[in-house]
Amino acid sequence: MTQKFINMGLKSSTADLDVWMRPAVKLNGEEYYEYILVYVDNIIAVSIKANEVMDEISTTFKFKNGKVSEFEVYLGAKLQKKSINGKICWTMSSMDYINAATKIIEGTIKNTIWKLPTKLTTPIVPNSVPELNGTPELDADETQHYQELICLSRWSTEIGRVDILHEVSILSQYVASPREGHMEQLFYICWL
Fold first, then answer.
1. What string of DSSP letters covers 94-134?
2. Span 118-130, pLDDT tens digits
3. Domain-by-domain residue ranges, the chain?
4. Are residues 102 and 173 in contact, defined by beta-carbon separation less than 8 angstroms?
5. What value does the mean pLDDT take over residues 167-176?
6. pLDDT tens for residues 23-74?
7. CA-to-CA distance for 181 and 99, rounded, in angstroms?
8. How would you list the strands of the sheet with 11-12, edge to edge?
9. CA distance linking residue 97 with residue 169, whole number of Å
10. Residue 151 phi, psi (nearest 5)
11. Is the CB of residue 20 less than 8 Å from the CB of residue 36?
12. 190: closest CA among 162, 153, 146?
């Protein structure tokens, strides 16, 4: 794929090797960059002429069912076109991902000792100090569950839940040896 993109005049970004770009010109003469974003087997073309870019890629690579379409979901985030101040913009929402994660959490803690908190006002229990937590360490299965919840939470911050980023980062420090108090804090964050 790399050689195909180079042949198309695209250059890989130094910040992310899966982001490819090339200069382009709009019909009105305005200059801009076309982008191609690649993640495993997903390709997104960001361009005034996105269909032409995808057609060019399809001369070398076969698309699933031969189909090229606008994305509705990308990496768990719902994508939508909206008109904002008279301009068409793409927006990204984490709501579908958060709803799915919530169902996973509810299903996972069913028949366990863990309970979800109620009446939440902040993303972490006020005055908590995770580094001084002296509760018992989690067993191997609960540690794996904690790690999965951290993963769900970290991804939710990537796709829009920036309001919990700091708290998730703090609790991410304890994935190797989490304690019961850390798990309780994580439920608090996940359930907010």
1. -HHHHHHHHHHHHHHHTTSS-----S--SSS-TT--GGG--
2. 776 666 777 778 8
3. 2-69, 95-191
4. no
5. 91
6. 999 999 999 999 998 887 788 888 888 888 888 888 888 887 777 777 777 7
7. 24
8. 11-12, 19-25, 31-39, 42-46
9. 19
10. -60, -50
11. yes
12. 153
Both structure tokens of 133: 């937590």
Within the chain, residue ranges assigned H as helices are: 2-7, 50-58, 95-109, 140-158, 165-172, 180-191
Is residue 94 within 8 Å of residue 77, measured between CB atoms? yes
Answer yes or no: are the C-beta atoms of 20 and 13 closer than 8 Å.
Answer: yes
Residue 168 and residue 188 in contact, taking contact as beta carbons nearer than 8 Å: no
Amino acid at 175: V
What sign has the CA pseudo-torsion 180, 186, 153, 95?
Answer: positive
